Amino acid sequence: MISVAALTGIPEFVRSAFGEPVLRTANRAARLDIEVVERSDCFVPQRTMTAFVDAVARASGAEHFGLELAPYLSLEHYGIWGEYLLGASTLGAAVGRAAATMDFHARGDAMSLDVADGRARIGYASAARGLDGYAHVAWGTIGVVLSLCRSYLPAAWRPQCIEVDLEAPGPRELAEDLFECPVVFGAPGLAVWLRSTELSAAARRATRPLPTFGDLARARSELHRIRGLQGFVANQVWAQVVAGRVSIDSTARSLDISVRTLQRELRREGVEFRTLVNTLRGRRAAELLRQTDASVTQISMALGYAAPAHFARAFRKVMGIGPGEFRRAACPGGGPLPEPPVD
Q1: CB 132 within 8 A of CB 119
Q2: Model confidence pLDDT, tens digit, residues 28-82
Q3: Which of 90, 98, 41, 101 is nearest to 223 (CA)?
Q4: What is the rounded CA–CA span in Å between residue 314 and residue 204?
Q5: d(CA 52, CA 48)
Q6: Rounded distance, CA 140 to CA 301, Å?
Q7: What does the pLDDT look like over 273-322, one tens digit per residue?
Q8: Is the pTM higher than 0.85?
Q9: Residue 29, SS3?
Q10: Which residues contact residue 266 at a Cβ distance below 8 angstroms, ignoring those fewer than 6 apart?
């Protein structure tokens, strides 16, 4: 799983560079409207991300889409996790924060820092390696690591070397022109090399938010901490709920399993897909009723219900009260509010 923040800004870039049809094609390939959820605290399978960028490259003819996009990517678009990293006092501390909290951004990814002989290697291993479209993700990851470095180092700074776990030739000259340093292909992982003394560089911007680890932990939904298949499914379904359309077929394909296997494995963990969907829709509905002035009809449509009456029945089943009563209770002095179950 990975935070959709990794794709923040990319849908609009695709629309501007290649047009609306290419963006629609990419969303279909990802089986999710990325633009709707990109700024939400959602997590999706790495396969969803790689399918999206791979479809962009194929539909647009931009063979090296990820590489050309890399210089425009920034950790500042990564939400609370990005703020937490950039709140560190030095570059070395920021990399340490990234390595220690990677699970808050992506499950299965890992970041490392090795220092020897006056050189430092910031390494990154992606769980997306081996998936179609990984090359685009790899270049994008390098771009984000470089943005972290440049938040602390002078504007004229350039890395000593970049390593990628991709097969050689092709874009070597393009890569070296874009990054202005040697690029080594066929490496065991992704890496940016720099002088070890540069790790002590202080943030270039003096005024930044000061998020703590506690802020980061609170910002991550309970869904992200659910383990097993149920956790992966819950996060994917939540992203679909936010986007307004839930499909068991899309969920199964995003996890590269059949619908039957998905249902069977969820039952082994004691949950039905339909029950999980209704619970997460109830949670999303509660947020919308509390935090927006959208009508019940508008909320039911946003959540993909065929009619407000269907939404009201489903909400009452999850929350124990109807949406109107819930909203009235949410007003100051309205009394205690029920909470949807966690899982």
Answers
A1: no
A2: 888 888 887 776 767 888 888 999 999 999 999 999 999 999 988 988 888 888 8
A3: 41
A4: 51
A5: 6
A6: 35
A7: 888 888 888 888 888 888 888 888 888 888 888 888 888 888 888 888 88
A8: no
A9: helix
A10: 229, 230, 233, 272, 273, 276
